[in-house]
Amino acid sequence: MHIPLTDIEKIDKEFVWHPFTQMLDWEKDDNIVIERGDGIYLYDIHGNRYIDGVSSLWVNMHGHNNKELNDAIKEQADKISHSTLLGLASVPSAILAQKLIEIAPTNLKKVFYSDSGSTSVEIAIKVAFQYFRQKGPKYKNKKKFIAATSAYHGDTIGSVSVGGMELFHSIYKPLLFETLRITYPYCYRCPFNLKHPACELYCAKEAEKIISYYADQSAAVIIEPMVQGAAGMITMPAGYMKKIEKACKDNEVLLIVDEVATGFGRTGKMFACEHEDINPDAMCLAKGITGGYLPLAATLFSKEIYEGFIANFEDNKTFFHGHTYTGNQLASASAIKSLELFKKNNIINANVPKVEYFSKKLKEFGGLEHVGEVRTIGLMAGIELVSDKKSKESYPQKDKIGHRVILKARERGVIIRPLGDVIVVLPPLVIEKNEIDQLLGVVYDSIKSVTQQ
Prior knowledge:
Helices cover 35% and strands 17% of the residues. With 453 residues, the chain is α/β, with parallel strands linked by helices. A hairpin with a 2-residue loop joins strand 1 and strand 2. It is globular.
């Protein structure tokens, strides 16, 4: 049955409930319906072209409609699209696991697959809890988790429990387990009213005390290394992450790093852990793992954790967890090809000049009257808008400043998304310097147009 493309917007409004979207506004507005993509560009059903300024929610690495990724998926589809990993193995999931371990922090040795960032975190939490339950009576009280303020780790109940974003999570509190909190270093709005670097990482010292004090009760610390994504691209000062790692090691608390947003080249390294040579006990991966083509996630574990589940069948130490599409062959084939493209095109090293240029251009935003702070690492950036630069006062929520900026950008051919009044810019890794100019030029003009009315 052929449906005219011009009818799709009507059909969408009638039947689709969009994520993180107030549908009252959606149903009233004219909305963009994407039909195709090519490189860093998206095209709507009317033929309009837009720069994909957030990599289709932070996942696209090598551009849309990449022939090599397309061919890898087609080739795999001609063999088999899916078979279960419950009691069976598959060719691409085995190969991908080996490739992931080869590039991951050196102490990570095993890969457990799932299908989203939320599930990768859920797995890490459940494994950490069960690991200590099975380790012996000495560890029977290690049931709690320590997470950072403003953390975002996904939308399932376990991942929301370790999340710390009031706007997203407060309504679900009756459903959640208790989580202990350490302070994530938000230097622009320091909760201790200190200034970096004169503060000497006071927040890290506070975190060390909490980890030490609750060590006997805590299974793990979970944290987004180097940058909190959904909280507003909040970047860590140097040294904070290393202190958290040491506190975990010193107190026999597992360290889980959530690299769902930061993995696969986003921060200028393959993984954000590499910036401070962090060796976690578990690492959560998703988003860019397949290059942005198919859903897939993986949770990587140390050999020590894995061996804590090896026992006789009747001992019931099996990790009773799995997903129907765990290790899906199509997604695994896409991820394998994505990693091959990283190597073939030397993307991490080749992007160093782009990252420097991106950062340099973003500094120009600091001159705008209502830009409070610009935060950037790799090809990730958050531009925080404020009503008053001196007092750092935020805009009233009802003003929807961030939303108005992204709508203005759409009029000028750029797709971006806000996190409240933080404008996120996160283009595909294959973006070129002239395209960075176009992207940031539109964002700059859109911010200026909305905030100086």
